């Protein structure tokens, strides 16, 4: 067989034969190389040595670590439980249960709730934390606690006009029950300016109620006031919760209903070292009619009051004085009688009408 002849008798070309000879001398690039005798000897000796280092391609699973975290956690839980058993009141304060500032804020009220707020731990209010131990601790303050719905067109009024009427309705709530000067006994001029001056029954109340309050004409039917010589507010906040709703009323009017609870922390004006704090809680419902001036005699920017009623606890009983008179110490009646009410329960309608009488209800909490 010749050098350029294949087993089947075919012949290689000169170029293929020359390439074959060249690769045979140089060796194929991917062909495995046989280790030298010295290399085989060194490898054998290293494998025989004890404690040799592992090669870079070797892998040994890591030894499992001792799980000490659960032991530490268990120890901390034990310490907390011991602290609760020994000093429960302080432990509640430590975790924010007794601090108004740390109470999680409650979402806005957009509909009437179905139940009363859950019971709070019995804790005495202080000047620094006047809402301590009360559901109001998580309520918003002032106008922020009054939910105003999104405005839409109603009857003759466009959406922007309804929005403006809703804003002024809330302005009335602020001017009548949140204005600091009014709460200190001043005449509520800003609130009065929003009431239709041609509404005779309300104007009679305003004309006589501040001078000679009576069951029929008592300023407290519409406004919140405290006598400054007897009572002073604690802190700068009044807690509120409630909402406005609206619909089309009679004769094409926009009818706005306000249902809001106000919580006033107060103390004696001459308390001195006595820091007794009482929370006067007032829930008000107004129905306000923004009338069509072509059908009802009114003035621009004013409303007529269709109805008003309120529930009140810790605001005093007896003959009207034109002011809330919170009971302090020995002022509290010994044998309270009347309806038992939860002043924070907003799930039921407001129960008190225009003529309250002198029955004083008993509050389940304050």
Quick overview:
The protein has helices at residues 14-26, 37-48, 69-86, 88-94, 159-177, 180-183, 189-192, 200-209; strands at 140-141, 146-147, 231-233, 239-248, 254-268, 278-290, 304-313, 340-341, 362-363. It is an alpha+beta fold and 366 residues long. It has a domain at 132-363.
List keywords for this structure.
single chain, 366 residues, alpha+beta, 7-stranded mixed beta sheet, two-stranded parallel sheet, 9 strands, 24% helix, 16% strand
Question: Can you tell me about this structure?
Answer:
The protein is α+β, with helices and mostly antiparallel strands and 366 residues long. The protein has a domain at 132-363. Helix content is 24%, strand content 16%. The protein contains 8 helices and 9 strands. It has helices at 14-26, 37-48, 69-86, 88-94, 159-177, 180-183, 189-192, 200-209, and strands at residues 140-141, 146-147, 231-233, 239-248, 254-268, 278-290, 304-313, 340-341, 362-363. Strands 1, 2, 3, 4, 5, 6 and 7 form a 7-stranded mixed sheet that branches. A two-stranded parallel ribbon has the order 8-9. α3 (69-86) packs across α4 (88-94). It starts with 13 loop residues before the first helix and ends with a strand. Residues 52-64, 87-101 and 353-358 have low confidence and may be disordered.
SSE order in H/E notation? Answer: HHHHEEHHHHEEEEEEE
Helix content range of the residues, please? 10-25%
> What is the rounded Rg?
42 Å
| Major β-sheet profile | 7 strands, mixed
Name the quaternary structure.
single chain
Count of DSSP strands:
9
* Mean pLDDT rating: 80
Q: How many separate helices?
A: 8
Distance between the termini: 118 Å
Structural class, from secondary structure content? alpha+beta
- Low-confidence segments, ≥5 residues, pLDDT <50? 52-64, 87-101, 353-358
Principal-axes geometry comes out as: flat
Q: What percentage of amino acids are in beta strands?
A: 15-25%
């Amino acid at each position: 067989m010749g050098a350029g002849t294949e087993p089947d008798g075919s012949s290689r070309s000169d170029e293929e034969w020359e390439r074959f000879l060249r690769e045979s001398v140089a060796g194929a690039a991917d062909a495995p190389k046989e280790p030298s005798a010295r290399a085989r000897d060194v490898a054998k000796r290293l494998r025989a040595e004890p404690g040799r280092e592992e090669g870079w391609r070797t892998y040994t699973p890591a030894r499992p670590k001792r799980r000490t975290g659960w032991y530490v956690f268990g120890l901390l839980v034990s310490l907390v439980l011991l602290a609760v058993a020994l000093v429960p009141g302080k432990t509640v304060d430590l975790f924010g249960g007794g601090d108004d500032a740390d109470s999680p804020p409650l979402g806005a009220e957009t509909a009437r709730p179905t139940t009363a707020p859950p019971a709070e731990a019995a804790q005495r209010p202080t000047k620094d934390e006047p809402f301590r131990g009360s559901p109001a601790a998580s309520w918003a303050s002032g106008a922020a606690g009054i939910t105003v719905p999104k405005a839409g067109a109603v009857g003759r009024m466009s959406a922007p006009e309804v929005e403006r009427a809703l804003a002024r309705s809330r302005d009335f709530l602020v001017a009548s029950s949140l204005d600091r000067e009014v709460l200190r006994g001043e005449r509520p001029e800003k609130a009065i300016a929003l009431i239709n001056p041609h509404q005779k029954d309300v104007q009679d109340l305003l004309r006589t109620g501040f001078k000679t309050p009576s069951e029929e004409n008592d300023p407290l039917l519409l406004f919140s006031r405290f006598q400054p010589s007897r009572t002073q507010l604690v802190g700068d906040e009044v807690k509120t919760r409630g909402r406005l709703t609206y619909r089309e009323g009679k004769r094409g009017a926009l009818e706005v209903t306000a249902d809001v609870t106000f919580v006033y922390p107060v103390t004696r004006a001459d308390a001195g070292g006595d820091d007794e704090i009482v929370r006067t809680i007032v829930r008000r419902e107004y129905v306000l009619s923004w009338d069509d001036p072509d059908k009802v005699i009114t003035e621009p920017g004013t409303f007529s009051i269709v109805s008003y009623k309120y529930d009140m606890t810790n605001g005093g009983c007896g003959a009207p004085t034109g002011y809330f008179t919170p009971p302090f110490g020995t002022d509290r009646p010994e044998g309270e009688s009347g309806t038992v009410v939860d002043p924070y329960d907003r799930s039921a309608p407001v129960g008190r009408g225009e003529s309250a009488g002198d029955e004083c209800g008993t509050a389940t909490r304050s």
